[in-house]
């Protein structure tokens, strides 16, 4: 999996592009939390649910349906702060980005995007992100390799998307009204 340090990069990168959402901490914080939410399934290890089970790691919580429902709950909770559709879209994309990044990793069994209708696991054809060790193995030379691959393949592109979004938004705000 990509690390919990990296999943939030997507929410941070998307935020400047969403002029219809208020620049409130609750919206951004919610987006960041949604990027990490699918990994709550690590509880499956404690509960001794097999990895390959639909409720196992990268199972139902990494599905498209889960992301859509999580985005809906996010929008409903914050509906007083912005338009429901914009919040739902942002929340869904943030949550779904987690499984997309996981599908770009070099290990595991893949992501159950179609759960609960199918437990088939998928990877993307391009998998440049080194899979992260779980637990104390993260604090090892292998963990350093993972962080470096995430910097190159996730953080740098996200920083570029964020920078371009900020420039675009600033130009939109200073453009003369015709």
Automatic annotation (TrEMBL):
GO terms for molecular function: hydrolase activity. InterPro entries: YdjM-like (IPR007404). Keywords: Hydrolase, Membrane, Transmembrane, Transmembrane helix. The chain crosses the membrane at residues 59-78, 85-115, 143-164. The keyword Hydrolase applies. This is Metal-dependent hydrolase.
